[in-house]
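Last lecture ended with a question: if I hand you only a sequence, what can you say about the shape of the protein? Today we answer it with a concrete record. The protein is TetR family transcriptional regulator. Below, first the input exactly as provided, then the predicted structure, then a couple of comments.
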Amino acid sequence: MSSNRSGPQSASSTPAGLPVLGAPVRERADAARNRIRVLEAAETLFAERGVDAVTMDDVAGAAGVGKGTLYRRFGDKGGLAMALLDQRERELQERILSGPPPLGPGAGTADRLGAFIEAYLDLLDRQLDLVLLSETATTGARFRTGAHTLWRQHCRHLLEAGGAQGAEIAADVLLAALSAEQVRHWRRDREIGSATLAESLVRLVRSWLP
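The predicted structure:
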């Protein structure tokens, strides 16, 4: 299982002070191709059937790799699930740090915050059960992940730059609203559409900026 979800110590920092998730381990080209096939197959199966209903054999068959290869690389389904989530979080991190605006550098504060909210909700729409698992596995697990450290620092930095009062607490409030458990309640129990939810949260955050 990737260490990037084990705690804030897995996040290093950029020269500007924004933490980044640790660099992936280098791998052979064939191993990289197998990893991509496995993660794509797992993402599709998890989305179609739900995490609980998918077996490691299902993933191996869909990816066209041997079961031994799958188990050696990921250990079990939990390790596979966390690797998939880690990959998606890295992709979002790269878009925040060096992608095009408004999510990446170059846009105004309010636009970057809005783009982050929309991008993170999109990640949750695709990986909600995995994020929920990572955030609730133990008490307070959400606060100990390297990814949470990155998202919090990013939001705090933008809120401070935009002149928001109490940016530290405001960043915590925003991420509490974006927790997997809260978003699941809004999306599945109250049946609030993703676009409506994003619009409401973006409007709320914009109200914090002078």
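Comments.
1. Residues 109-136 form the longest helix (28 residues).
2. Confidence is low (pLDDT under 50) at residues 1-13.
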